[in-house]
Structure formats: C-alpha cells, structure tokens
Amino acid sequence: MTLDAAWVRAQFPAFSEPSLQGWAFFENAGGSYACAPVIDRLTRFYRERKLQPYAPYPASEAAGAEMDEARSRLAAMLGVQTQELSFGPSTSQNSYVLAQAVCGWLSPGDAIVVSDQDHEANAGVWRRLAEAGIEVREWRLDPETHSLQADSLPPLLDGAKLLCFPHCSNVVGEINDVAAICALAREAGVRTVVDGVSYAPHGLPDVGALGADVYLFSAYKTYGPHQGLMVIRESFGAELPGQAHFFNNDTLYKRFTPAGPDHAQVAASAGIADYLEALSAQHSGPATGAPAARHAHDVMRAREVELLAPLLEYLSARNDLRLLGPRRAEARAPTVAVSLREPAEPVAARLAAHKVMAGGGDFYARRPLGALGIDPEVGVLRLSFTHYTTPAEIEQLIAALDAEL
C-alpha cells in the first residue's frame, strides 16, 4: 500500500499556499492542516446556510441535513451508533462536562483509576474528583520503558468504577493496547474513558471493536475544524446524569452538550469523511463508510511507519538527547519527543531558521514528563507528523537537527 503522496498533498490547500512553501510541518500533534473538503464545506455553510438549522425552509433544512450527515458518517466510520457521537467546542470541554456527569454518577468513597501518561485535558478533570470525596488511584508508567504496564493494572481496578487512560500519549507516543485494556476493565466491571486525541490523526479507530465506553478526540487534529468529538456508548450514557437542557436529555448526542453546537463546524466535519473515503478509493480500497475508514487507517499508518523509521534511527544514535517512548516505529505514533540538555523552546525557534516548524515545551504533559524525571519548565522538543509528510521533509528535519543540536 504505497501512499500516493502527490495526490494526498493535493487534497490539502496548505501545500499550495505560497507563504508555506519550503516549510516542513512537524507540529501536527498541535493541530493538522485542514483538508479541502472541510474547507469547502465550511465556506459553503457560511455562504449559503449560516442560519438556525432544522427549520421548515430549504436553507435551514440543508444546514440541518449536513450536520446530521457529519454525525452519521463519522459515527459509522468509528463503528458506533449515530446517536453515540456528539460534538463539542473541544476535547478539553467535552472531558470537563463528562467528568461533571461522572461525579454525579459516583458516590463519595468510590474509586477511579487515572494514568500519569496522560495529557492534562484527560487527567486533570478526573483527578479533581478527589475534591468530591472520590478515591483517585494512579496507574503509573514505567520510568525505564515509559510504558503503562498491563500487569500493574488489575490491583488498581479492584473495586473501582472508572478507568481513564490515553490511546497514545502526546509525548511518549506509544500506542497502548486499548482493546486489551478495555477488556481487562470490563471483566472487573469498570467503565473506560479513552483519550484518543493523539492517535486519531493517524487513522480513525474502530471504537466499537476497541470496546471503550467513551472515546474522545479532536477534529482539528484529524484534518477538520476546531471541534471535539466524543463517543459515549448508549448503555453508559443512560447511566449518567444529563448535563444539557432538560428537554435535550432524552437525546444521547445532546445529553452531554450544555450549549448549542457550532453548526458550521459540525457540518464541515463531514469533510473528514469525504477525505478518508477518497483516500481509500485512491489506494484501491472501499469507497464508502467504515470499510473505507479502515483501509484509509492502514494506508496512513503504513506510510507513517515508513517515514518514522529513519527519524527514530537517527535520534536513537545520538547520545546527547533522550528519546521518549518506543524506538520501534510500528509501536508508536509519529509524535516524537526528545529531552535535550537545554530548554527545548529556544531549540524549536532555531529550527525555524531552517524552515522546520516544530514545538518545544511541556505540551500539557507535565505529569508524564515529571514521571520520567524531566523538568516541565525545560520541556521537550516535539517532532510530530502525519501521512502527508514526505521523505524529503524528514531529511530536512534531520539536517536542521544536525545543524542546531
């Protein structure tokens, strides 16, 4: 499954933008470029349909239909029911609202499990439940391997109600075995919340197959607008107290959305499905729905593994930096963080002189960095890319690192 890089990059207007010519984009973990179908749909909505949707006149009916299309197509690609997918202003906001609902579901003395491999958006809202008398247990990463070890989890699950963990850490990069972890939790009678923000840009997961009760990710990192997407399985959603207007609590996809959604951005999110289907068809795969999403996932991941291998080999050979996470490309996402002997943010600024866009800092991952003995104030240099990156850009990055480290 060799990626047609020229075709892929033609689907992203950023690559034809004069001001971005020659720049290699290595901060995709902070937000990807938007694909053309998303931009086109957003533009059309603002031009033709920027009014209250679902009213009985053509423009409003078209607006509502496009919002429904986004939900139904993306839910199918995620392997869940349409009503199980909701939109919110961000994953951080969705996580906060969900935590408020869970707080009403739990009782003082109940226990939840969180990890220290998490981005703070997923970790912080759960840890704050301790203020309501909830016992918060920590699943700690191994400081040598940087991994969450499955054999240390069962004792933490004993008597717990909820497990919150990442599909992939935004600094460690390791892809956790979500299906196995969720199965372990399910056997113990524990519900699961999975932060998929750092994994979903590398191919939408089959959430139904993973078995998570909740799965969250961000559209602006999956080539779309600035929205947070949350899958909450119907059986769990029905147990939690609603957080919306009382008259919306009977509709699952509205139940955990306190305010009205951004109509235009929800509608534009259908462009993500457009792109994934076109990507699959271009690479001899199914043209529509969940099969297209699965094929697109595999094509994207194969390309990323191919690009990631030489970068990991280069970084692993240097003794003046510390590579976080697995050194094997197949085991991780192409979100690569390195700890340096100097503060990371100025290094990222120096890379810009070589037309390399990268990030330096803590990336809201202060807990995992602290667990690995890294001062969050010093931070890490993060080099993150996706399937639309080219081998030439990897070479450009390595040359810049050679010049500045």
3D structure, described in words:
- By secondary structure, the chain is an alpha/beta fold.
- The chain has helices at about 5-10, 35-50, 60-80, 90-105, 120-125, 155, 180-185, 205-210, 235-240, 250-255, 265-270, 270-280, 290-315, 345-350, 365-370, 390-405; strands spanning about 25, 85-90, 110-115, 135-140, 160-165, 190-195, 215-220, 230, 320-325, 335-340, 355, 360, 380-385.
- It folds into two domains: about 5-35 and about 290-405, Aspartate Aminotransferase, domain 1; about 40-270, Type I PLP-dependent aspartate aminotransferase-like (Major domain) (Aspartate Aminotransferase, domain 2).
- The protein contains 16 helices and 13 strands.
- Helix 2 (about 35-50) runs antiparallel to helix 12 and helix 3 (about 60-80) crosses helix 12.
- The radius of gyration is 21 Å and the shape is globular.
Features of the shown structure:
single chain; 405 residues; alpha/beta; Aspartate Aminotransferase, domain 1; Aspartate Aminotransferase, domain 2; 2 domains; seven-stranded mixed sheet
Q: What's the β-strand tally? A: 13
Query: How big a fraction of the residues is strand?
Result: 5-15%
What is the CATH T-level topology of the largest domain? Aspartate Aminotransferase, domain 2
Distance between the termini: 35 Å
The side-by-side strand order for the widest beta sheet comes to 2-8-7-6-5-3-4
Q: What class, by secondary structure content?
A: alpha/beta
Overall body shape:
globular
Helix residue percentage? 40-55%
**Largest beta sheet, briefly?**
7 strands, mixed
Pfam family, one: Aminotran_5
Domain Aminotransferase class V: 25-233
Keywords: Aminotransferase, Pyridoxal phosphate, Transferase
GO molecular function: transaminase activity
